[in-house]
């Protein structure tokens, strides 16, 4: 039987609620066909309070020994500044393990009433490819004359040809597996260096994919169009910041941010990729057992698929859809009254029935 070693970073807040729910579903999905060997890593804000760091100094080395990483969320506002939690764990992991793309499906699931009147599951079905290691989150910049009236803060975006090209190529390849339509989101009118460069890379790579139709949109127009005509999007490629923002909008189009999953895929086959819901630690609802686990479960399905367990992954997806279509066991963010665990149990029940 195939064994997979999975590092688990439940993290903070509702991460600690949705990840156990996800593990239970994944266990049920592979029962009898594969073995998931979980290693829980107690990293995050409590670890920071005890040690002064979000993860150990050799944390990245530790992660390299796994087949995949399953993460909940990190962040403990207002006790620890968000830039500390983010830069202490998520961003270094993405960079050090060369997780060049962040793949984020945005899909209205059956039975869910989204916020858009007249738009159903056939209209809202897109997938974002987010540049994930540089761009606006490259961490380049600085502050001078701090605290004085002469203070200046710089946050520099970095776009390298090598990286943009591989991210864009990934998006074209993905488009080929779907409706052969790619939207590239930029802001080339205002950002005449980085985004004009991005447009040029997209045009160059497009020459290798004459069968894929390319649409180029400015990010502000793209935000409006996602609401007005979401059916005009299939695969979308965008920079780190733009895709971060647009995928939260996407989560809203799905009916809840708690439904949206993501895969941080490494470019190095020897390294693990990381799978997580796109939501954060949600301190406003943490500790009550009512967080929606479906985004974390969906991220788990993406992990199974990535590990080569396509069958089990597809069964988890069908069980998620059966649960939303049925509509009796949903968390409060979707208008239901069920707990996190009850939703997970319901998904497992549908798995067993399939
Ligand atoms: P958030 O995603 O945690 O919450 C936004 C809103 O969506 C809240 O009202 C929350 O209750 C709701 N929500 C989110 N997930 C839900 C779920 N599964 N079920 C039901 N409702 C859900 O975003 P935020 O409040 O801006 O950030 C909180 C903290 O999380 C911050 O510290 C932030 O930096 C961090 N964060 C971490 C990650 C990550 O670890 N990858 C991602 C985003 C935000
Ligand atoms: Mn985000």
UniProtKB/TrEMBL annotation:
Presence of keyword Nuclease: no
Family annotation (InterPro entries): ICDH/IPMDH, IsoCit/isopropylmalate_DH_CS, IsoPropMal-DH-like_dom, TTC_DH
Keywords: Lyase, Manganese, Metal-binding, NAD, Oxidoreductase
Catalytic activity: (R)-malate + NAD(+) = pyruvate + CO2 + NADH
GO molecular function: D-malate dehydrogenase (decarboxylating) (NAD+) activity; lyase activity; magnesium ion binding; NAD binding
NCBIfam families: PRK03437.1 (NF002898), TTC (TIGR02089)
PANTHER family, alphabetized: D-MALATE DEHYDROGENASE [DECARBOXYLATING]
Similarity-based family: Belongs to the isocitrate and isopropylmalate dehydrogenases family.
Protein name: D-malate dehydrogenase (decarboxylating)
Organism whose genome encodes this protein: Sphaerobacter thermophilus (strain ATCC 49802 / DSM 20745 / KCCM 41009 / NCIMB 13125 / S 6022)
């Amino acid at each position: 039987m195939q064994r997979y070693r999975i590092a688990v970073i439940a993290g903070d807040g509702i991460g600690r609620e949705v990840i156990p729910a996800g593990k239970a579903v994944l266990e049920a999905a592979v029962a009898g066909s594969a073995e998931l060997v979980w290693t829980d890593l107690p990293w995050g804000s409590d670890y920071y309070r005890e040690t002064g760091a979000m993860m150990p100094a050799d944390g990245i080395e530790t992660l390299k020994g796994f087949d995949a990483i399953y993460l909940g969320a990190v962040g403990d506002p207002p006790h620890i500044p968000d830039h500390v939690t983010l830069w202490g764990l998520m961003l270094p992991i993405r960079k050090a393990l060369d997780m060049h793309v962040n793949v984020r499906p945005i899909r209205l699931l059956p039975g869910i009433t989204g916020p858009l009147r007249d738009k159903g599951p056939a209209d809202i079905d897109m997938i974002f490819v987010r540049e994930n290691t540089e761009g606006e989150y490259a961490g380049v910049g600085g502050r001078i004359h701090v605290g004085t009236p002469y203070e200046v803060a710089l946050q520099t975006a970095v776009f390298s040809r090598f990286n943009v090209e591989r991210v864009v190529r990934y998006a074209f390849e993905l488009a080929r597996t779907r409706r052969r339509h790619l939207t590239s989101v930029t802001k080339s009118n205002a950002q005449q260096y980085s985004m004009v460069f991005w447009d040029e890379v997209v045009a160059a790579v497009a020459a290798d994919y004459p069968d894929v139709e390319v649409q180029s949109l400015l990010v502000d127009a793209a935000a409006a169009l996602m609401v007005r005509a979401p059916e005009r999007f299939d695969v979308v490629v965008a920079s780190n910041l733009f895709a971060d923002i647009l995928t939260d909008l996407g989560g809203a189009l799905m009916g809840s941010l708690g439904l949206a999953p993501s895969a941080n895929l490494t470019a190095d086959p020897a390294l693990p990729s990381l799978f997580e819901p796109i939501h954060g630690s949600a301190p406003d609802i943490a500790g009550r057992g009512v967080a929606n686990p479906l985004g974390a479960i969906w991220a788990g399905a993406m992990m199974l698929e990535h590990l080569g367990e396509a069958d089990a992954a597809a069964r988890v997806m069908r069980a998620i859809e059966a649960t939303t279509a049925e509509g009796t066991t949903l968390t409060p963010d979707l208008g239901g009254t069920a707990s996190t665990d009850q939703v997970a149990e319901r998904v497992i029940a549908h798995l067993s029935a399939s």
